[in-house]
Amino acid sequence: MTVNHFQPGSGPAVPAATTGAGPSRPRHAEKSSVMSVDDMVAELRDGMTIGIGGWGSRRKPMALVRAICRAGLRDLTVVSYGGPDVGLLVAAGCARRVVTGFVSLDSIPLEPHFRRARERGTIELTEYDEGMLYWGLLAAANRLPFLPIRAGLGSDVLNVNPELRTVRSPYADRSDLVAMPAVTLDAALVHLNRADRRGNARYLGPDPYFDDLFCLAARRRFVSCERLVSTAELIDSGPPQGLLLNRMMVDGVIETPHGAHFTSCVPDYDRDESFQREYATTDWETFRATYLDGDEEHYQKAVAAR
Amino acid sequence: MSRADVCVVACADAWRGDGAVLASPTGLIPRLGARLAQLTFAPALLLTDGEATLTYDDEPEGWLPYRAVFGVVAAGTRHVMMGASQLDRFGNQNISCVGGWRRPARQLLGVRGAPGNTVNHTTSYWVPRHEPRVFVERVDMVSGVGHDRGAVEIRVVVTNLAVLDFATPDRSMRLRSVHPGVSVADVRAATGFPLVVPAEVPVSRRPTGDELALLRERLDPDGLREREIR
Description:
heterodimer, A: alpha/beta, Glutaconate Coenzyme A-transferase, 2 domains, 8-stranded mixed β-sheet, 3-stranded antiparallel β-sheet, 11 strands, 29% helix, globular, B: alpha/beta, 6-stranded mixed β-sheet, 13 strands, CoA-transferase activity (chain B), CoA_trans_fam_I (chain B), transferase (chain B), NagB/RpiA_transferase-like (chain B)
């Protein structure tokens, strides 16, 4: 397996890392994975299977999702603990299939665009139990073809996914379990609170969700962050257990302040409930024209100007 | 004492005798029930703030991010009380969609954790509006599995009218008690399948004075529980 140190091609100038006091490090230690949102989009192709981190309407890499909507990618298979990331990609016509256990805005139980697409029959769905999706990512991360799990047995999850098989324990219990297949991703998109330019990153909120697993299950891994900081500052910004991603797990780092908006990114900010309500109740064409037709800077300005 | 108060203690009683397991209530009335149980007869019960923090009497006592919840599910040390858009006589539950799965008439939440919950640990249900549309002959998509499909234990179904359980030879649904002011006929009329009804159906237990005081003064002083039942 190749460890990939991504070299940005024609990306914009890298922001100077704010190093603390002390002598500067040799240049070879400064290998950078920093890229722009456009650099990331340029690596994605129609038809890819893309995993999106976060959970529901929590710490979603929304700036990256918005960029995919603008770029007009097509026929994506989106793997996600679904929230407005799925809704946007469905509404923008980018997603052909959604792989998930739910799609919800948390404070608004049902995601309106996903719901409409399902009721119109315009989207394909692979519906798993939430724990099955976790096991599938875990299997991919461990390069296993499947992992056994009880979840799914007896339910209609096995009927709506006729490709799913069970496996019998070779030990004395002889129990039958679901053989959850590896959920392997072409690309993973995640958003964390802090990252350095090499691809080390941490979360500062109460839950890592499954962002590390999404990265480990993917061929190309893109992490956006609220703030790009020096490695020293990254280390000092919290306990070592919060350092969820290391350089083996990341190909590109993108600084997108407020990049999880309108989902929550605690402690940097909470969910923007009033904006989420607007998203959920505004017709797609109006929402798109108001917020998504320009670039990310335009989006953030339009949000601030409400 | 209101109908909602009766529902809260009926939910609380679901966790009676469970010991140190994670209580995972969905909805306000089940949450009040779980908190009431923790503060009174089930002090070993674990609860969360609904996100990643374990709480005792609403104060943080530990960490339980989603990935660890799936570990608890697999370990079986949990008793969830879920909602149900549809429920059949063996406790098969649907929260995924109404109508055909391929192109549903109404897309709902998705199966969420229901398949894993029901085959790993005790499950109960809370139905704020007991009606034939919920209690159906056959659910459109089995999200949570019932006793005829390998559920570990569906303990109780608490509704705005009654408490139901599965204490029958084939583990099909039975009327355990009716709430004060509700008749057996009311429950039968609101249930879309033949319910097992014992010769004598008791009235659901009323909250004790201490329970009512806790509810009114500490857990839900604004009476939000009254709005969950319509």
